[in-house]
Amino acid sequence: MPERETLERAKEDAREGKSPSTQAGEFVREEIHHVREGKHGVRSPQQAIAIGLSKARRAGVKLPPKGSSSTRKKAAQDTRRSRSKSKPSRTRSRATEAALKKEPRSTAGRAALSRQAKKSAASRGKQARSQAAKKAANTRARRAA
Description:
With 145 residues, this protein is mainly α. The chain has one domain (4-108). 72% of the residues lie in helices and 0% in strands. The chain is built from 7 helices and no strands. It has helices at residues 4-15, 20-37, 45-58, 69-83, 90-101, 110-124, 126-144. Helix 1 (4-15) runs antiparallel to helix 2 (20-37), helix 2 (20-37) crosses helix 3 (45-58) and helix 3 (45-58) packs parallel to helix 4. The longest helix has 19 residues, at 126-144. The protein is globular, with a radius of gyration of 16 Å. The termini are far apart.
């Protein structure tokens, strides 16, 4: 279950008309924070991101399913879960937590996340990177003013 502050920040993003990926970013940030503080570990930075996105979908963020067929199936399952009012299975939750506790913590470190971001950006192509950089520069210029 996501923390109350995370849910509030995501709802605020939604009220401000920000994109679903921005709203989901709050959940991913929370997950990475959990790993860094030692609550549990993850096998890779991608797993931390996936857990965060799953939590976002279950909290009602309208994220489109993306990726392999198994990933899309999981996304659809999470979206359905957001509509149902049944509580999560305690046994399954405990088993998941126990499995994650055995994983390393260093996978959500600064270097690992930097590697993941660079790899992800490289796969998107030069134009997408350029566009993202321009958008970031624009945002900085508006914040400074």
